[in-house]
Amino acid sequence: EIVNIHGADLCGIAAAEKFAEAPEGFHPNDIFSGCRSVVVFARRLPAGSLSAQSCVPYTHVNKLITEEVDRMTLSISSAIEEYKIRTVIIPSDDPYEHWEPENKYGRGILSLRHAGYLAGLGVLGKNTLLMNREYGNMLQLGAILLDVELEPDSPVNYIGCPEDCSLCIDICPQGALDGRTVDQKRCRQLSINITEKGYTLKKCNLCRSICPNVVGISS
Q1: Rounded distance, CA 211 to CA 167, Å?
Q2: Could you give the dihedral angle defined by the CA atoms of residues 52, 173, 92 and 150, in that order, rounded to the nearest 10 degrees?
Q3: What angle do CA 109, 13, 145 make, to 5 degrees?
Q4: CA distance 200 to 151
Q5: In this structure, are residues 13 and 150 in contact, taking their beta carbons and an 8 Å threshold?
Q6: Is the Cβ–Cβ distance between 126 and 179 less than 8 Å?
Q7: What is the mean pLDDT of residues 31-44?
Q8: Residue-wise over 68-89: b if at least 16 C-beta within 10 A, else e?
Q9: Residue 1: predicted pLDDT
Q10: Do 112 and 40 form a contact (C-beta atoms < 8 A)?
Q11: Is residue 177 pLDDT above 70, yes or no?
Q12: Which of 196, 216, 214 is nearest to 205 (CA)?
């Protein structure tokens, strides 16, 4: 209820113990040893920016929604702490510590897409995005670690990507997708562009926009 009041479109809870497959150093308890539950929530991104011929609207929408989710995370955390519960907030995007310069590979302190899956918000697509039955893959995720045990939600069991669908893999100009992971070095060469004035633009969103489930799962 607290999360919904603060504007989340989706919300779920995952038990910290369910993150057993997280890489070493990226488990909720590696971030906050007292963590027992992870609250995961999402805001829907307006899909119209995907139709723009300029990449500026899509870049701007992503920037605004990321800032909004981070503000929501702070507000929700403060509201929960009124109940004498300790909380640790997770950035919706930056900053993070893990960076491999040779591979242009960065990893957030907690995988929000996997957290979203464990909290029942959706399923993982071949484009590596979390997709929800109602909102598709147009989601920005946030999470808060709590030191109390809450009743967890279960992962959903609906089908996201059809087994024979490879649209996102085939359309990627960089060949960065294999259906399970993304080669960040290849992806960043095209998707992240810094202009002469210093603006960072998201120049490619084909793996998101080509998906039949971009705004909802029909199956």
Answers
A1: 7
A2: 110
A3: 40
A4: 41
A5: yes
A6: yes
A7: 97
A8: ebbebbeebbeebeeeeeebbb
A9: 61
A10: yes
A11: yes
A12: 214
Q: How many CB atoms lie within 10 A of CB 187?
A: 20
pTM over 0.90: yes
The kind and range of the H/E element at 62 are: helix 56-81
202: tokens are: 């998201």
**Across 117-191, where does the E strand assignment appear?**
123-124, 130-131, 139-146
Single-letter amino acid, residue 3: V
Q: What is the pLDDT of residue 6?
A: 77
pLDDT by residue (tens digit) across 120-164? 999 999 999 999 999 999 999 999 999 999 999 999 999 999 999
* Strands, E assignment, 72-135: 87-90, 98-100, 105-107, 123-124, 130-131
- pLDDT given at position 7: 87
Q: Which residues of 137-166 are buried (b: 16+ CB within 10 A; e: fewer)?
A: bbbbbbbbbbeeeeebbebbeeebbeeebe
- Residue 89: the pLDDT is 98
CA 192 – CA 203 distance, rounded (Å): 6
